[in-house]
Amino acid sequence: MSTESPGTIEVPAPTPWPMVLAFGICLLFAGLATSAVVSVVGAAAALAGAVGWFRNVLPNEAVEAVPLIGATPAVATQRREVARLELAVPTRRAYLPLEIYPVSAGIKGGIAGGIAMAVLAMLYGVLSHHGIWYPINLLSAGFFPRMVTESTSDLSLFSLSAFLTATVIHITTSLVVGLLYGALLPLIPRRPILLGGVLAPLLWTGLLHSILGIINPVLNQRVDWFWFVLSQVGFGIVAGIVVSRQERVSTWQGLPLAIRFGIEAPGTKKTTGEDEK
């Protein structure tokens, strides 16, 4: 039953619980790279936000009465006609890029770049006398910080859980970055390998180097940044070469909406007689 009073209207009451829920989810995932305590606090905040939010809408929605505003006065003007902007040259939208790489190109580039990065990482393990399992365990320690507190000799040993974790992280990251290369390289008409294979890895490494000391200081001390940059550049160059050598496909931006949705509509395609004419 409505409880509105004359001159007011009921609107949903403001609530901070959605922000509490979002903040709790952020803390929940931030704990994967910091500490389990952060995840516990985030889970508690997310649970409190969800419960508080549901209590605001169930079983009855929380509302508040807001006074109504009077009718908007009519706008009076002394102009007799609407002033319009005359364009000397008609403009049209530019459909760019005209050609893009298919999704398969990004997947191939990500796989090839991931293999190149893995080879360089294992080469670092051999040359540094830490063993081939050392970089794999370090990658897994990025998501499980307790592993990096172990001694160097322990990190050089094979661990099934660390191997499986690092494999999933490496494959997922390589595919995602490969897809980004496939989407962004058509937008870089000149020197795509230089920009995508050298500059982008250097920017990414600089960003990670500036925040890793805050997120995980112990891991930051164990990372050899020269080899880290070398592996990132190797991934970027190999992925960029593989993607750029794939055949491009034309975009559908200029086609009618019905054709892009696969709908057979009359008048959207030319007939055989129209092509001859």
Question: What key phrases describe this protein's structure?
Answer:
two-stranded antiparallel ribbon; two-stranded antiparallel sheet; mainly alpha; 2 domains; 57% helix; 11 helices
Provide a descriptive summary of the structure in words.
With 277 residues, the protein is mostly helical. It has two domains: 12-66, no CATH class; 99-250, no CATH class. Helix content is 57%, strand content 5%. It has helices spanning 17-30, 36-57, 103-127, 133-141, 152-155, 160-184, 192-215, 217-222, 225-244, 257-260, 272-276, and strands at 8-12, 63-67, 99-100, 249-250. A two-stranded antiparallel sheet has the order 1-2. The N and C termini lie far apart (70 Å). The mean pLDDT is 77.
